[in-house]
Structure formats: structure tokens, C-alpha cells
Design a protein that fits this description.
With 281 residues, the protein is α+β, with helices and mostly antiparallel strands. It has three domains: 44 residues, Uridine Diphospho-n-acetylenolpyruvylglucosamine Reductase, domain 2 (2-Layer Sandwich); 107 residues, 2-Layer Sandwich (Uridine Diphospho-n-acetylenolpyruvylglucosamine Reductase, domain 3), CATH 3.30.465; 108 residues, CO dehydrogenase flavoprotein, C-terminal domain (Enolase-like, domain 1). The chain is 32% helix and 25% strand. It has eleven helices and twelve strands. A hairpin with a 2-residue loop joins strand 10 and strand 11. Helix 9 runs antiparallel to helix 10 and helix 10 runs antiparallel to helix 11. The protein is globular. The termini are far apart. Flavin-adenine dinucleotide binds next to strand 2, helix 5 and strand 8.
Length: 281
């Protein structure tokens, strides 16, 4: 995508003021990696927000607060008990992209292959947006509103928050790709909470073989109340997968995507179950 002009902002306030002034002809740029996938808009001025701070991860109580400009590499390197988003970030190709792509950039404009949204959808994520006020939206509301389309000029994501995940809750993430640097064919994230041998809470989201990362509420409902046993997964996963219109990518057919999707979802659920039961990843 070609830009008409480029402005470097030094503070959140100046970035927001510039974007408000530009209106629909302004666009925030963080890592700048998505623009090769957008068609040319020679009327657009890019407002570089990479120097306005908002970088780093803070652990507070049961939450991790991730600054908008935190890079995927920062997320891979960060370590704390219950921190699992780094497990998704480390699988996003490549080193070079992880070094510059930011947390907010990965969730603000959704592509079929966007991976952090899957984590946010299963970890009760919230997204904080700064406009003239500060508003926090649950990840499910945020993604349902197709963020890049719903944010007004001057609105900036400043922070993402996710839960720490420790037993009796477990997290699992799986993706299938042809090569390490390829987009995933199917990706799935799951979080399960178990008590007294029963799944009490289930969160599942899938991506890549769909237009955007998508939660599977019918599967979540079917799993809640089921025995905490991998044998409980196959029927509800098969039923939920049969309701989805899978889209083949990277040269693979729709039928192939439909075949592997239930396997990838089950793998993510099995990992989440093992970890909910106290097994390490
Ligand atoms: C070759 C290649 C392969 C890739 N493969 C994958 C993959 O397999 N999985 C995956 O998850 N990602 C992948 N990515 C990365 C992904 O497609 C995005 O390009 C990236 O996550 C965007 O992050 P960024 O910081 O570069 O954001 P930018 O490209 O700078 O911005 C992305 C969008 O977010 C907006 N934006 C940025 N920051 C904010 C903010 N704070 N508030 C509001 N809006 C904001 C921008 O205006 C823009 O619309 C790949 C990228 C490339 C180039």
C-alpha cells in the first residue's frame, strides 16, 4: 500500500490529535507489516505510533496487561507463571516479523491468519481503546465489531489484558501449516476449567480456514458439564465443525480444511485438558 505522507508521533496525545485532524485520510502505523496486504490508497497519511511508548507487559493480580506497542518478540521473551500468549506469538512467522509486529497491530485489523485474537477470545481478553474517554471492550465484543472498521479517527488501542492461566484452568494452541513460514491452514485455541472431574468452563476459537478468527460458542456450551476426559471431545467437536464453512488455504481444498479442522481443535482441547489437570505444556 502506498501512502501520500508520513508523520512520526512522539506521544499518544499528539498521535491521536494528528489522526483526528486527518480523519478518514489518516491511519496509525505500528510495525507496518500489514500494509503489503492492503490495496493502494494514495490519499492516506500514515501516522507512525511506534515511538509513543505503550510497550511492555505488566503482571497484576490474575491479569497480564500488554501495552499496544509490545512486539511479538517481547511476548515470546516474557516469562511469568500463567503467561501463555507467548506460546502463540512464538509460532507467528518469521523472526523478522515478530521483531516489529505489535500486539495491537495483530488484533486491530483482522486477517484470516491473525493468531493473537484466538488467544484473546479464549482467555477472556479485553481491549482498551483511547478516544476522548477510555473504554474497555471484551475481546468477543471487539472482534464482533471488526475493530479496524469500527474505530473512529483518533481512536487508538492502548492496552490488551488477558487472564493468567493456571490449574484448574489449562490452555492449548495448535496450528497446522505446510512450512514454518506459511500461513496456517487451520489454527485453534482452547481454555478449559475443570472441577471434580467435570469441565466447568470451555472457551474455543478457530482461525485461518475462516474469514476471521471466530469463537465456537455451541462447542463451548456442549463441553461445559461434560466429563474432564478427552473422550468427551470427539462428538461435540465433530458436530460443531460440521456447522462451519471451512475455507482451504495455501493450495489446500475446502474439503481438506474441513477434514483437519476437527483434529486441530481436538488437539488444542487435549492440551488444555492436560494442563488443567496440572501437566506442564
Ligand atoms: C509475510 C507475513 C506473514 C505473516 N504471517 C502471520 C501469521 O501467520 N499469523 C499472524 O498472526 N500474523 C502474521 N503476520 C502479521 C500480521 O499479518 C500483521 O501484519 C501484523 O500482526 C500487524 O502488526 P503491526 O504491528 O505490523 O501493525 P501495522 O501493520 O502497523 O498495523 C496493522 C493495522 O492495525 C492498525 N493499528 C496498529 N496499531 C494500532 C493501535 N494501537 N490502535 C489502533 N489501530 C492500530 C493499523 O492502522 C493497521 O490497520 C504476517 C505478516 C507478514 C508480513
Amino acid at each position: 500500500m502506498k501512502f501520500a505522507d508520513f508523520v512520526i508521533a512522539e506521544t499518544l496525545e499528539s498521535a491521536r490529535a494528528e489522526l483526528k485532524r486527518l480523519g478518514p485520510s489518516g491511519m496509525p502505523v505500528a510495525g507496518g507489516t500489514c500494509f503489503q496486504y492492503l490495496s493502494d490508497r494514495p490519499d492516506i497519511t500514515a501516522v507512525d505510533i511506534s515511538r509513543i511508548g505503550l510497550r511492555g507487559i505488566r503482571h497484576e493480580g490474575n491479569d497480564f496487561h500488554i501495552g499496544a506497542n509490545t512486539t511479538l518478540t517481547d511476548m515470546v521473551r516474557y516469562q511469568a507463571e500463567g503467561w501463555v500468549l507467548g506460546e502463540i506469538a512464538t509460532l507467528i512467522p518469521t523472526h523478522q516479523i515478530r521483531n516489529i509486529s505489535t500486539a495491537a497491530g495483530n488484533i486491530a485489523r483482522l486477517f484470516p491468519w491473525s493468531e493473537l485474537p484466538l488467544g484473546l477470545l479464549v482467555l477472556d481478553g479485553t481491549v482498551t481503546v483511547q478516544n476522548d474517554h477510555t473504554r474497555s471492550l471484551s475481546a468477543r465484543e471487539f472482534f464482533a465489531a471488526r475493530a479496524a472498521k469500527s474505530l473512529e479517527p483518533g481512536d487508538l488501542i492502548t492496552r490488551i489484558t488477558v487472564n493468567a492461566v493456571t490449574p484448574p484452568t489449562g490452555f492449548g494452541y495448535r496450528k497446522e501449516n505446510v512450512t514454518n513460514s506459511a500461513f496456517a491452514l487451520v489454527s485453534a485455541a482452547a481454555a478449559l476449567t475443570i472441577r471434580d472431574g467435570t469441565i466447568t468452563r470451555a472457551r474455543v476459537a478457530v482461525g485461518s480456514a475462516l474469514p476471521v478468527p471466530t469463537p465456537l460458542p455451541a462447542l463451548e456450551q456442549a463441553l461445559e458439564g461434560a466429563p474432564a476426559d478427552a473422550a468427551s471431545f470427539s462428538k461435540p467437536v465433530a458436530e460443531a465443525a460440521a456447522e462451519v464453512r471451512w475455507k482451504g488455504r495455501e493450495g489446500m481444498s475446502d474439503e481438506y480444511a474441513a477434514r483437519i479442522a476437527p483434529i486441530i481443535i481436538s488437539d488444542a482441547l487435549e492440551e488444555a485438558l492436560r494442563r488443567a489437570q496440572g501437566d506442564e505444556a
